[in-house]
Amino acid sequence: MTTWNLHFLNARHAVTRHMAEIRAAAKQAVALASEHADVPDFDLVIRALPNGGIPDWGVGGHAPSPGVIEVTVNPDRYSDAYLIRTLIHEMHHLMRWDGPGYGKSLGAALVSEGLAGHFVLQVLGGKPDPWDAVRPSSGVARQAMNEWSRLDYDHARWFFGRGDLRKWTGYGLGHKLIAEHLATAPEDSAAGLAAAPADTFRPVMRRLLAGEGDDTPDEVVESDAADAKPADAGSPDADKN
């Protein structure tokens, strides 16, 4: 059984009107996720901001370190359903933190986000979340293959559209990467792959390249930035990155 503690940053009472709903939704999310995986013990921190969370959702979260989920809500747009989806995404990051970690390289980030998105589908069914449904532009898989091992990759460029790539490209590519793997290994699941090393999926990226008509050997780009900080792990909100 998962032990989890709920912490409201609520000295100014911004989230008071939703506290009961948040408690119930968080309890439901833990129960749903626990039907598919052993969710690690964790602390859940909730704060409210007038424009917090993903604009259309009013909720956004990330898992910055082992055993911690931080969620920001917009009290005027709060939704139980979106909080549950966000928490289930982040619970997969918790599982991964207790295994190989979120990862410091682009390839690791793609795998971590792709698995978290597929865990949401495993638990809740339905359609992918909007960022996971983004279709990467032509040539993006080649760029990702070339930068797979880089520790100094630009997380904001790949995942948040701060640069030349379409917003949420990394989420869409990671989702596609894991979908390709699951299509050829139906016995696997996002929950079961929580501790899988990122390089397990490197051949899958090569298959994606071949499917795009590009099966030339990839240029392996390594980085000496051994002290690079790991990217934040979570659904795309405005509080991190």
What share of the residues lie within helices? 25-40%
What fraction strand?
Answer: 5-15%
Strand order of the largest sheet: 1-2-4-3
- How many individual domains? 2
Helix/strand-derived category reads alpha/beta
Low-pLDDT parts are: 215-232, 237-241
Description:
The structure is a single chain. By secondary structure, the protein is of the alpha/beta class. It has two domains: 4-97, Double Stranded RNA Binding Domain (2-Layer Sandwich), CATH 3.30.160; 106-211, no CATH class. It contains seven helices and four strands. The protein has helices at residues 19-34, 80-97, 106-124, 140-147, 155-160, 169-184, 202-211, and strands spanning 4-9, 42-48, 59-65, 68-73. The chain has a four-stranded mixed β-sheet, with helices on one face. Helix 3 (106-124) packs across helix 6 (169-184). The protein is globular, with a radius of gyration of 18 Å. It starts with a strand and ends in a 30-residue tail after the last helix.
